[in-house]
Specification:
globular; single chain; 4 domains; eight-stranded mixed sheet; 22 strands; Nucleotidyltransferase, domain 5; five-stranded antiparallel sheet; alpha+beta
Length: 430
């Protein structure tokens, strides 16, 4: 089932999202019109000031590449989306610009003295590739708050619940039982903390992409306090080789390895739970909306998702952020949003050596279309006969290219195209 449809009255007051079948019924009866394609939003032709509205909760799971978004009403997931960032693209573009400027600076320094490190960064500054993630997430938060009656926002902020980890004690007899390791929120927080602390690898042999088990470092498996700072992650082969020995006995013939493992164990608890600065910047920006803000840890999200038996997807992770008892997934088709930007301001394209190879025109609108518009094209003649939907790449000649779900189609005449969604810097799919 697809996402629920957002509804606005004629005064642009957000109402309760409706089922897609109800939206089709409103359109057929002429009571509403399409206000926006992505996300699909209807606007009624009458004002509804007396219609009761039930507040919804906007949940976010920020990620380095993809941010999960979910709108939940009570225990029902009505809308879901996955926002793909373009931080790496920005990083590559800035690297290219920095390299070109460095070459130019070295060639033009005979006119003035070279100046380096003569700029100070403002407080709270983030790299453009990181700031982009905050800004694009806030763009969609503000956009969804206009189309849906959002009453509160929940963000996955901390990687671990430090208080729960510090106060937790695992019994040695329970460490070998997978069922008991995965029972309860405390075990998920501890496992997430250890996985991050030891970089997803065995502390002894540095093996990756293998099942890892929790084991005691200094004490044998038959006794010990079970404090989290004394726990390590080891692979199955190392676990069998160590057997019932202590870490000191097992590594007695490898003093360098023993020293390295002890150094990892002595890492402060806060050092492995450093939260990305973008998450704090996003939290600060969310507070400016004036809505109640709640936060949750990643361990809690994984615990809720495993308890409900849901697969590991960004939009399902967003639905499981915070306090979750039960969930009814009413949508199985999240809106896939990809940040594409608004083009480049460079008037001269260069090759990898910095030499100009092409010129870009200042004119962006051609025959009423702009690169990035989402259009439909019903081609009735020629070799490209058919119906196409996708982002358009405009040319001054009037022969456009379209990026569709099936691939790129070239040579579409502008007279066959019709805009259904104006350029806004994003690409949409399902």
């Amino acid at each position: 089932m697809s996402n629920f449809v957002f509804v606005l009255d004629t005064t642009k007051r957000s109402l309760n999202p409706v089922h897609p079948g109800t939206a089709r019924h409103l359109l057929k009866q002429g009571k509403a019109a399409v206000f926006r394609r992505y996300p699909f939003t209807l606007i009624l032709k009458d004002a509804c000031p007396e219609v009761p509205v039930q507040a919804v909760e906007l949940r976010l799971e920020p990620g380095s590449q993809v941010t999960g978004i979910a709108i939940v009403q009570a225990d029902k997931v009505l809308f879901s989306a996955e926002l793909t960032h373009r931080g790496r693209q920005i990083q590559r573009a800035l690297l290219s610009r920095r390299q070109l400027r460095k070459k130019r600076r070295s060639r033009k320094t005979r006119y003035r003295k070279s100046r380096f490190l003569n700029r100070t960064l403002p407080e709270g500054w983030l790299a453009p590739s990181l700031q982009h993630r905050v800004q694009t997430t806030m763009t969609w938060v503000n956009r969804l708050c206009k189309f849906a009656p959002v009453g509160s926002i929940v963000q996955e902020l901390a990687k671990f619940d430090l208080q729960l980890i510090q106060n937790s004690v695992s019994q040695p007899s329970d460490l070998g039982k997978v069922e008991e390791q995965q029972n309860g929120l405390q075990a998920y927080e501890v496992k997430a903390y250890l996985t991050e602390k030891f970089h997803h690898q065995c502390v002894y042999c540095n093996a990756k992409d293998v099942p890892l088990a929790i084991a005691h470092s200094n004490l044998s498996s038959c006794r010990g306090s079970g404090r989290v700072p004394d726990l390590v992650l080891i692979c199955q082969s190392c676990q069998q080789a160590q057997g019932n020995q202590t870490m000191q006995d097992f590594l007695s013939g490898q003093p360098n390895l023993l020293k390295r493992v002890v150094a990892k164990l002595e890492m402060p608890l806060n050092g492995a739970s450093v939260v990305s600065p973008t998450q704090w910047a996003l939290l600060k920006a969310l507070k400016q909306t004036g809505l109640p803000i709640h936060t949750g840890s990643r361990g809690k999200t994984n615990f809720n998702r495993a308890r409900l038996g849901l697969p590991q997807k960004p939009w399902l992770g967003a639905a499981c952020v915070g306090e979750v008892d039960t969930l009814k997934i009413l949508t199985q088709q999240p809106l896939l949003i990809t940040a594409k930007g608004h083009g480049t301001r460079q008037m001269c394209g260069t090759n990898k050596y910095g030499f100009p190879i092409r010129h870009r025109s200042r004119v962006q609108v051609h025959r009423g279309f702009q690169t990035g518009d989402i259009v439909t094209a019903m081609v009735t003649a020629g070799q490209k006969v058919g119906f196409y939907v996708g982002r358009v790449l405009c040319r001054a000649s009037g022969s456009f290219d379209m990026t569709t779900k099936a691939g790129r189609v070239s040579g579409i005449n502008h007279k066959y195209c019709q805009v259904i969604h104006k350029k806004d810097g994003y690409r949409y799919s399902f």
